[in-house]
Amino acid sequence: MKKILALLFAMVMVLSLFACTAQEAAEATEAPAEATEATAEATEAPAEATEAPAEATEAPAAAAVQRIIVWNNAITDLTASDQQRSEGDLRSAYSIKDVCDKCGIQVGDKASVIGSDGYVGEEVGSDLLLKYLTLEGENAPIVVGEAQDPDWAVWEVAYINFGTDVIMTSYKDKISVKDVFEAVGMADAESYDFICTDEYTQNVVAADIADCYISWIDDRIDAEVPGIGDYTLYSILYIQPHVG
């Protein structure tokens, strides 16, 4: 009887030991599973971190216009030539390239020719340099020359926009400088320099721009501005934000 009890006790001990070993093995296999979950959660963090740079990559704002050039006075001392508008229609015109060279205008890949009615014709910058602008004849100012397709043209050209530089044509009796600023997107500044062909410069505070005009006066293109004796700046060439 004692031998049977001893045998039974030994069997119980063996079974208990086997059960403990099985439980430890099961617990050991759970740890890697939990570890892989932690690893999976950890790999999600970089994905969230990459969202911030994506939000920060907004397109930069377009550069504001930094200078307005008055074509009518920019062509002083330049030489005109007869250029074709259409077959049998030749007009005295000035090279756009010559004006860009004289005034130091940086010409990029694209430019815009803008009519008095707001119509915009897109141009390749290098192509535009092959063309001419005339102040004479029907629908002038208008771009002419052999490089200009006569079936495509912007009538009554008001502006040629090169980006930071804009050429304006003064073909009306009087033009508000405030309206010109709004039309071309002039850079904001505390004051602006009005520079004449003889380099005389008059500074005008921004609050007075609404009282400034580009005008035909005695066959000249002048600027009317507050702050000087007769309000007239002879042969205005540039308007630009004051620096310094």
Which key terms come to mind for this protein?
4-stranded antiparallel β-sheet, 8-stranded mixed β-sheet, 244 residues, disordered N terminus, alpha+beta, globular
Gist?
The chain has 244 residues and is an alpha+beta fold. It is 32% helix and 31% strand.
Q: In words, what does this structure look like?
A:
By secondary structure, the protein is an alpha+beta fold. Helices cover 32% and strands 31% of the residues. The chain is built from six helices and 16 strands. The N and C termini lie far apart (115 Å).
Helix and strand element order: HHEHEEHEEHEEEEEHEEEEEE
Shape: globular
The biggest beta sheet is recorded as:
8 strands, mixed
* Tally of contiguous helical segments: 6
* Average pLDDT score: 82
Class inferred from helices and paired strands: alpha+beta
Task: Report, as a whole number of angstroms, the end-to-end distance.
Answer: 115 Å
* Percent of residues in β-strands: 25-35%
Task: Enumerate the spans where pLDDT stays under 50 for 5 or more consecutive residues.
Answer: 1-10, 17-22, 25-61
Layout of secondary structure:
Blueprint: H1 2-49, H2 51-56, E1 67-70, H3 71-74, E2 81-86, E3 89-95, H4 96-103, E4 110-115, E5 120-124, H5 125-128, E6 132-134, E7 142-144, E8 157-161, E9 165-168, E10 174-176, H6 177-184, E11 191-196, E12 201-205, E13 213-217, E14 220-224, E15 232-233, E16 236-241
Parallel strand pairs: 1-9
Antiparallel strand pairs: 1-16, 2-3, 3-6, 4-5, 4-8, 6-7, 8-9, 10-13, 11-12, 11-16, 13-14, 14-15
